[in-house]
Structures are given as C-alpha cells and as structure tokens.
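Researcher: Here's a chain I'd like modeled. Treat it as a single chain, no partners, no ligands.
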Amino acid sequence: MPWEDVKEILRPDKKDVHMGIMKVDHDKCTKCGLCMINCPFRAWEEDEGGFPAMKEQYECFSCYNCKVACPNDAIIIVEPYHVTNGYWKTDSYPLPAKMPLEAKDEEGNPTEWNAIEKAIFERRSVRNFKDKPIPESLIQRVLEAGRFAPSAGNCQPWKFIVITNKALIEKIDKEVYKLLSFMYKAYLDDNMVKNLVPLIEDPLLGPGNVDPRVILGGMGSVTRMGEEAVSLAAPCVILILGDERAISGADLNIGIAGENMNLVANSLGIKACWNGFFAKFLNQVRSLKKKLGIKKPWSPITSLCLGYPVFKQEGIVPREYRPVTWYREGADGPEIQE
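Model: Modeled as a single isolated chain. Structure tokens:
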C-alpha cells in the first residue's frame, strides 16, 4: 500500500485532533487523588494547590473514568474528544453527552430501570486490582457465561485459556510491551512510521489500531508506565480465542460471549477489563503461541483481565448521543429522535 494512500491515517494533522478536556470543581474536590489513579492514560497531575489538573501534554479520549471514581462528583466535562477533519473525523461533532434516557413502562409512564439494565449501565472497565487471587470456582462461573452465549448459526467459535500463573503473565507482558512500545515510538518518528503501513492491511489489526486514541493514548500510556501495564497487574487473564472459520466472523460472536463474561464477573464482585493489546499482540509472538498451544484455525481475539477492585470504579457516566432514526407505522417517512 503506497504511503500517500495511508498518510492521512498515520499522520493526522495535530490541529484536528482534540483530546478531551476535563476540570475539577475545587469547592467539591477533597484531593483524594482517585481521579488521577483511575485515568488509564494518566492525564492528570496535581497543581500548585494540590488539586487534580490536566497535564500540559496528555491524551484523553473521554472515557470519564476520572468522573466515575470521584466520590464527590467534582469532575466536570468541558469538551469531549473529537477530530474535526481527515480520516479520523468524528461523525458528527459536537454530540451531546447524555445520561440514560428516562425509563418508561408499556404505557409510556415513568418507571425504574430493572436490575439487568442497571448492571449494563453501571459496568465499567476496571484497571486497578488488588493483589488477591480469584477462586477458581468463580472463574469457572465467568467461563460458563461465555460458553452459553448466543452465536451465529450456533457455531460457538470460542475457546478459553485461563492464566493465573504470575510468571507467565509477566512473560507475556514483557513480549507484548516490546511490540507496543516499538509501535508507539515508530508512530512518533517521521521515518519509522512508514514501517507501520503493513499493520493497516493486517485483518487482525487494521486501521482502527492506529487510531490516535489507541496509539497515542493506549500504547503511549503502556510505554510510559512499563510492562506491568499490559495486563494491568491482574491476577487472572482469560484469553478468548476465535475460530477463523466462524459464521459471520469470530469477532462478533466473541464480543457477545465476552460481554456475558464481563457482566457475570461484575455480579460476582469481580471486576473486568477488555484487553485487546494482551491478546492481539500476543498473536505476533510465535514462541508464546506455541507455549500456549494456539494454532490454526484458532487465534487470540481479545482477553479479559479479572480481579478484585482496589476502590469503587463502576457507575453511570454520560455517553455520546447520536440521533436515532425511526420508521414508524403510519408515518410518511423517517423521524429523527434528537
């Protein structure tokens, strides 16, 4: 693929990429520091008064993990992440960040969200775990939630590898870290960046893995924080393998299975974080694939890092609201729900 065809992907104009902007209400803030700890990109630091403030150079993709961790609702959204032009232009900006719309019953009257709805809204990716093993009996329940997920044509194209061996997790961390840090450093170098062109064509990676949020934020934060950041120091990592022969492709089916596993983990008091880096870049290390017994037609699609949370990291935060198009019975045409 010629460089000119991918230049816009790998070299977005810096003036078009706008990281999220957050601030702290000093009247509410108690300086507990949880917002800084819970930021996956470490975008915060203490200002001269000891209050959290965004660094001069930072990445923020508006996950609002800082907002979830704050016990006093002191975090304020100033502006969400967005890109104004080029390949990565967000569609469309600005979009309002809204909390869940009001729940209504069959007659359209206000009601309460049910337990399943609340579990979905409050689930968050947790990245700060206690150094405490998870009982295998609970891990097994998480696995069963994945095994009983629906799949296209009932093809069930998944296979699970559970890793609780700390030495093996650290070994994978080390190898994956090398690849991530290489990609990050290559991306920043005007000459080396051209070495990343083949990755865009890789069906397991593709353009999405050089999105500024992933490479500047995700890979950049891992590079700065060190090897342990790859697996988040989780006591358990579940690799989810996909069968390349899967009906409708493995990714969709495994996404369904993995979300089942996430929700059940939360219900058991365990918390989880999707981790594509750990799985997809493991796919590039043949020696580790061999050690783990991974061979065609199976390949790592994603992984779940599981553990007990150090502090509260779940709750409802606003999400982008895109207008919904309705085609209602009796209507002349589409109706847009703003």
